[in-house]
Amino acid sequence: MARPSLKDQRSEEILDAYVICAARFGLEGATQERIAEQAGVQRTILRHYLGNKDDMLKALAVHVIDQFQGQTELMDQALQASDKKEQLLDILFASGVISNMNLVLVYQALVARSEQDAELKPLLLSSLTSFISCIEKFLKRTSSCEDTDRIFAVTQGVIAIYFNKDAYNPLHPPQRWEDGNIKAANLLLELL
């Protein structure tokens, strides 16, 4: 297998720095100066590797969506090897299993921006659809329930709890909140 090019590796490092800056300062606050400093490069290097500001935002979106999709694929593999609904809760709610807080924050920022950027919307919808389908498929397989609308509703509820948890995680809430999320998701799963 061919080794990744230095350009690909450097672009990845710069995009990782962009994710950190966008998570910390928001999409608008992730200036080229901050990204360059985080990546340990001169600002002029950013344009060389990623293009102008619009090109950089598109590259960031693809980078974040690709990583989210990769996490979804890992989750799907783990769920295929299990028949227990608790496995889903472990994957979604165990600390750090599939969530990278910076990615989640940037993903949410990209969702908010999608109203202004028509190109973002289908990319984000596609990745989210894959995530939802993965969980729905697992619940259909592991549940005795045959009501597909009910399974989808439970899927949506579990996902809503998952994303809500990630939305307020930067506040470092009390453990009781995390425990409540898991219990609420488990109650939903018991409906199947």
Keywords:
elongated, 192 residues, 9 helices, single chain
The main pleated sheet reads as: none
- Listing every helix as H and every strand as E from the N terminus to the C terminus, the arrangement reads HHHHHHHHH
Q: Using only CA atoms, what is the Rg? A: 19 Å
- Distance N to C terminus: 45 Å
Task: Find the count of extended strands (DSSP E, 2+ residues).
Answer: 0
* Average pLDDT figure: 91
Which residues sit in consecutive blocks of at least 5 with pLDDT less than 50? none
Shape from CA axes? elongated
Strand content: under 5%
Q: How would you classify the helix and strand content by structural class?
A: mainly alpha
Q: How many individual helices?
A: 9
Helix content: over 70%
Q: What's the gist of this structure?
A:
78% of the residues lie in helices and 0% in strands.
Describe, in plain words, how this protein is organized in 3D.
It contains nine helices and no strands. Helix 5 (85-93) runs antiparallel to helix 9 (175-190). With 192 residues, it is mostly helical. The protein starts with 5 loop residues before the first helix and ends with a helix. It has helices at 6-29, 32-39, 43-50, 53-80, 85-93, 101-113, 120-142, 148-168, 175-190. The model has no long low-confidence stretch (mean pLDDT 91).
Protein topology:
Layout (H helix, E strand, L loop, with lengths): L5 H24 L2 H8 L3 H8 L2 H28 L4 H9 L7 H13 L6 H23 L5 H21 L6 H16 L2
Helix pairs in contact: 1-2, 1-4, 1-6, 4-6, 4-7, 5-9, 7-8, 8-9
